[in-house]
């Protein structure tokens, strides 16, 4: 299995859609939440795609009464596909970077002397509550908690102060990779290095389980997150966008 396929399979598994189909070298996840990775078709390859394949994918989403969507890397072999989607009234948005790093380097990102986050086998109420707090969309937060909580074998990191969780994240494992998801820091607590403690705790957990390779996805416009991940040794391998159909076919 090549790197692209391994990462895409692991990505979909980490957000645990309600259903997943495989068709013509694509994964088709289906979900009714707000997490786009859980409801966008993604190719497992870097090969040109013909119109007939798009038709078949659209038919599968339509048959389940989901609006078709695609998650496509911004790479030359998909330029014609993106053009085809535009003709079908799709719009590409939410540019996101796929970054790769190592657990050993990631473990060193916590501030000097700082204690890594606690890592648990299941999320507690305080972990979930952070996603619903000030500065976050509570509806989207609830969907993300649901998706991350039901993924099999995931771990959940928390930096706690008293009864509150002030920073959190999750880690999934699959296809030879550990992956970081759901990084959150309470709005009033940013700038204290708490996210670095989350990464350090998750990195240690990955190493204890024999995983060295780590990947994550980050909003292309989130400069603060990019700076953190750069310090943790991550670098961008490719960027993707979500292509959403704007109207149902006539």
UniProtKB/TrEMBL annotation:
Residues annotated as domain N-acetyltransferase: 116-250
The protein's enzyme class: transferase
A matching Pfam family: Rv0428c_C
Enzyme Commission code(s) on record: 2.3.1.189
GO molecular function term, any single one: mycothiol synthase activity
Keyword Transferase set for record: yes
Keywords, in A-Z order: Acyltransferase, Transferase
Coiled-coil intervals: none
Protein name as annotated: Mycothiol acetyltransferase
Provenance organism: Variovorax paradoxus
